[in-house]
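Task: sequence in, structure out. Protein: Alanine racemase.
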Amino acid sequence: MALTSGLGGQLSIDLGALARNWRALDKVSAGALTGAVVKADAYGVGITMAAKALHAAGARFFFVATPDEGLAVRAALSDVHIFVLDGLYPGAANLYIRQNLMPAISSMAMLEEWLAKCIERNEAYPSAFHFDTGMNRLGFRLGEVNAVRERIEGLGYAPQMVMSHLACADQPNHEKNRTQLALFGSVLAKFPGIPASLANSAGLMTGRDYHFQMVRPGIALYGGRAVNGRKNPMAPVVTLHVPILQVVEARTGESVGYGAAYSLSRNSRLAIIGHGYADGFMRSLSSTNMRPGGKVAIRGKVCPVIGRISMDLSIVDITELGADIPNPGEGAEVLGATIGVDDQADAAGTIGYEILTSLRLARVNRNYVGDGNLPPE
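Result:
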């Protein structure tokens, strides 16, 4: 593929595919409201454009990690409900109220600060209550359930939603899922009539028992694999092509890249691409003679990355292309129809989430394609 505009890499984001993914998940979760997680710059694809496309598809509930992300969504969309998963930042209650952001309150200190502001202004500002059912991460501890309930009963305050987060939903048969489901049910018994949310993308796909009144898909919206061991049903959203800068000939026994960690076992033809770990192409995608690394596709054929990935450059063995030699300026596919997000993640020993969110680092021309602005079907 030749690069068609600008210099450097080309990151293409298909807003139509993003919208279709949300609609597909909304059908699966029929009976529950389908939110959209847009934290980490919408998993690297761009929070403003993603939020607008998801809104056009029908999403009205958005989940961000930080207040700054909430402000970005609010600037783009005035009529949506925004939950801040990191909770209430100390001293920031006025900002949340002014911008109509709902903190996912996860500690007694957060709760007291939020209630104090509600009392001061004589208004029950909305929030979610986040309970930890087995992550040992953010969330009220299970031993605090009664204290939380007693604290709000005296004030007549009720959260908009009670939520928790699954630790092992990407493994549907993991016993932890059923344990957390039971513990979450015990929490909900203390908050009758309050909407509940437990399922992320994988939980949504695991079964209706996890859906409750709201589901919170994230990775699946952006085309990543949510459930291990299953075929990924989601449409890919991103493609990334980076320029070939030079093609060189190298001889048997010569080393490649920093540290001389890879030595050639044959006379080889190498393509040097303008993409390195400063662009989010993880150093863990490097290879040695003992360990394969990442791959790219050039002229539709998969070619291995060899040697260590540098800050700005990577080296690709294109010997198998034979006489079909690419020219400088042609594009190498890092993500796309041949090399998927999860293909790179598997090679790097990580998950698609990290591959996608690393796109925020890439020094590339970002292009939005597809019609993500159609009204809901």
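The chain has two domains: 31-222, 238-369.
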